[in-house]
Amino acid sequence: MIIIKKIKENFVIVLQSIGMVFAICVPYLCNIPKIFSKYISNNYVTPDNFLVYLALKNGGIGLSIILGVVVWWKIKKNNKNVVMNKDNSVYHNYFYVWYWYCAKVMGIKKCNLIGVPIYMQVKLVMHQVFDEYPLNDSEYPENKDEKIMVSKMNGNNKELKRNLILEDTYLVNNTQIPNSERNLFTIKISRNNGNDFVRRYSEVFIEKIINEVKKMPEKTILNVFATTNPKNTLNLTRKLFSQVGRSNILHIYVFQQRRDGDRWFRKKGKKIY
User: Fold this and answer.
1) Which residues of 215-237 are buried (b: 16+ CB within 10 A; e: fewer)?
2) What is the pLDDT of residues 69-81, one digit of tens each?
3) CB count, 10 Å around CB of 189?
4) What does each C-alpha distance from 121 to 133, 192, 233 come to in angstroms?
5) Strand, helix or coil for residue 254
6) Residue 257 forms beta bridges with which residues?
7) In the beta sheet, which residues pair with residue 161?
8) 250 and 223 in contact (C-beta within 8 Å)?
9) What is the pLDDT of residues 138-190, one digit of tens each?
10) Which end of the chain is more exposed for a tag (fewer CB within 10 A), N or C?
């Protein structure tokens, strides 16, 4: 059922891609100069028919380029108002290259982040793959008086590799962190005390995270373990993670949490920058 939903929501893009390839291949499947021999013999090159005349006379690559560009332009025009990942019941764990292809080649400008793995949310926003990431603000009520808790562990570890645990939608137990990363200096920043199951947008939470990260040493390699909702992830990435490489953070790795069982974080993080 899940696979069918994934196929269904990507079907149009796949079909458009096939159509674009077909348009490029048509001139090689047909003898274009022969089909349009009467037009070619009765006309000559003018500024108005320059491209069409040469393409029809020579066939092959010239006509392929023209047909391909025309079909591609129409597809991009058709897709400019399309929102990728519209079905919130689907887990959108697609490869980065597929998102890039849909945005940069097929002209999709908007992407829904709900159901997208957190590491991929960060990567898409950070690299500005899409122009817009529409979210319904009413689904993320803000509590401006929220109390944010900060705790630190393994303070004696002076490595430049550090953990940042962000408790938002769900709490994070230390046993969920991979064994290889548990002994690193760790900062846990919590918006949720375990009694709030509402997805909230929290400017205070984001500001506290930014403040703590900016205190870290130069050339810090940051491991991120987050349960942030899409709106918090979007704004945190724009305000903090997008500065990676130009700030005190040298590299950032986002660890993806499993969706079942004890929801452990995977052993290896996804390098975002």
Assistant:
1) ebeeebbbbbbbbbbbbbbbbbb
2) 889 999 999 999 9
3) 22
4) 10, 21, 7
5) strand
6) 265
7) 221
8) no
9) 999 988 888 999 999 999 999 999 999 999 988 999 999 999 999 999 999 99
10) N
